[in-house]
Amino acid sequence: MPSGPERLRIGGLTRWTSIDFPGRLAAVVFLQGCPWRCSYCHNPELLDPAQDARVPWTEVRSFLTARRGLLDGVVFSGGEPTLQAGLSDALAEVRAMGFQTALHTGGMYPERIAALLPLLDWIGLDIKGPWERIDGITASRGSAARVQASLAHVLASGVDYECRTTWDSALFDLGELTRLAADLAQRGVRRWALQRCRPVQAGAPPPAAELRKLGTRFEHFEWRDA
Ligand code: SF4
Question: Rounded CA gap, 194 and 25, in Å?
Fold first, then answer.
């Protein structure tokens, strides 16, 4: 039976990115499995937690050993990376190798996130929509309360972060988006990115004037129309 990071089921490895870990050149390790079922899921091949690993940790370790001094950091993404018990060992190993660490998460396991935060240099937390919409978007009852708890852990930790919301008018309307921005700002969120919902794209992006208004509530705000 493998132990530590060797037990991770890794669905893929991106060897170089400049956009997934702000300000750093990084590799991305995609972990298999997610309990949510967002209609617009960008990585459906990673949803099944029982899927065999496509990339062994030993391969990731060898790759990172050869990239010391060339990459700044390593991002763990998914799927939902906090689903897997080997994640904390992997983060500790990557840090011991001299890399900075980042996590992309939907925030569904607040206690695990609280335990992982001391091992992280940056966290990207999805806020999938207005709180009353999140259970529907994720097709999972109780999701919203879990994300609220995760957000509170992230904000209290002092770890650098970004909250991210995927938006299309087919998911929820501009008025709801505006109210979400106010709610997040009131909770203390200072960094928020809005990203276009690629698989839906039913409507236009928010008007430029609305984007400017949304951005006034945050120290850092970005619209990603990718
Ligand atoms: S949380 Fe992410 S990986 Fe999971 S279903 Fe939603 S979009 Fe897909």
Answer: 22
Q: Coil, strand, or helix at residue 99?
A: coil
Contact 87, 76 (CB under 8 A): yes
46 C-alpha to ligand 1 centroid (Å): 9
CA 220, CA 15: separation in Å to the nearest integer? Answer: 27
DSSP string, 167-225: E-TTTS-HHHHHHHHHHHHHHT--EEEEEE-TTT--SPPPPHHHHHHHHTTSSEEEEE-
Q: What is the pLDDT of residues 169-211, one digit of tens each?
A: 889 999 999 999 999 999 999 999 999 887 655 567 888 999 9
CA angle at 105 for the pair 102 and 107, rounded to the nearest 5°: 130
Is pTM beyond 0.85 here?
yes
Ligand 1 atom nearest residue 37's Cα: 5
Q: Which of 80, 82, 167 to mutate to test the pocket of ligand 1 (most atoms within 8 A of CB)?
A: 80
Residues in contact with ligand 1 by the CB-under-6-Å rule are 34, 36-38, 41-43, 47, 78-80, 106
**Chain Cα centroid distance, residue 184:** 17
Q: Which residue, judged by its Cα, is nearest atom 8 of ligand 1? A: 41
| Residue closest to 35 by CA, chosen among 46, 23, 27 | 46
Q: Is the separation of the CB atoms in 167 and 177 below 8 Å? A: yes
pLDDT at 202: 59
How far, in Å, from the CA of 39 to the mean position of ligand 1?
A: 9
Ligand 1 centroid–CA 70 distance in Å is 30
